Amino acid sequence: MIYLAQVQKKGFLGKTGLRLIACQKSGDIWALVSETEPIVTTESNTFGEGILVLADITTAGQIRTINEATEWAINLLKQYLTKGLTPDFLQEQAVEIEQWRQSLTLQSQELSRRALELEARRDQLQELEEKLKKEQRRLQILAQNLKESEDESSNENGEEQERLERENTA
Fold this sequence. Notes:
By secondary structure, this protein is an alpha+beta fold. It has two helices and six strands. Residues 143-170 are annotated as: Disordered.
């Protein structure tokens, strides 16, 4: 992994160390390294104290290569500062992104609330539909009973009329 580090002199024995500042995650993405003890190495003896270097360090802490970071830092500054990517601009962008995130969160919550309301209304409509179907069945049964009653009544009236006619003719 590539690290941005600063060369530090260590003690009177002339040993030097690398104080790790940041590590490269991928491409142009870097993350700050929390304070750690400097990595003591003789390979950094050729660099003066305080110089920034790029060091390729294995996970076991072995240094593969060390190169001065001056050109890298200059290129980085040219690349970003000429495009207007100043710390203030980046901070403004971070604030704007946070506002968008909060807005999207609120919109998501509102959509969830509306979805719950729609679900409740759908349930109410289903209950009403069931009530209407039951009422329709009840009315059909009443209509059928009424018709049967009318038929019976009409049959009884017809029989009564026939009886009366027979009595009158007899």
